[in-house]
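2024-03-11 09:14:02 INFO queue: dequeued item ABC transporter ATP-binding protein, len=231
2024-03-11 09:14:02 INFO validating residues
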Amino acid sequence: MTLLSFDAVDAFYGRAQVLRGVSLAIGKGERVGLLGRNGVGKTTVVNALQGIAQVGRGAVVMAGQPAPRIRHYSAARAGISVVPQGRRIIPALSVRENLLLGAAVARPGPWTLARVFELFPVLKERQHTPGTALSGGQQQMLAIGRALMANPDLLVLDEPSEGLAPVIVDELAEVFVRLADEGTSLLLIEQHISLIRRVVEKYHIMSKGMIVDSGPLAQLTTEKLKQLVAV
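2024-03-11 09:14:37 INFO prediction written
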């Protein structure tokens, strides 16, 4: 089953076009990486899912259903949760309250506060602390936990390693692999190549708003990375 597909999608902010004919698909049980330099349109893929960027041509299909008019809640209702770049923790809410926001879509499934606290024990210890009082790594855990509370079939992670220490990135890699092994599909948008290599099985590389290379991760060479991603 295909959980999310972009079919020749052009996407815009007002009159400014960012995505040009982007096609990709994530099926049930898949771990897909989206790579590229800064400013090539990776986050616009996420924003197109959330109605922030406008889809002008092409089709976005969520959980097998075309989405001709995308709203901010469309992805969550279709079983797609986004962990946004920058985390977007609500400052006025506690850790617990931020997590409960993720459950607002009321999708049935296994993720509860107790299970999130089992995955990230530090969130249980600090559940009554304001969300923005956490360290950067803890805030990323909170953003992931909040997304899981929506009981997604597909978790979209936009630059989750940004600004984090290597030891925290290693911890997140283990979490992502565990989630995938338990059945959650992943779309990992990253520049941290070692994280991509530890987590995903298929890749797409973007340049100038287009997908310029795709394939099994095992076929992604260092030479191609240097050419297209400048690592």
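2024-03-11 09:14:37 INFO annotate: The radius of gyration is 17 Å.
2024-03-11 09:14:38 INFO item closed
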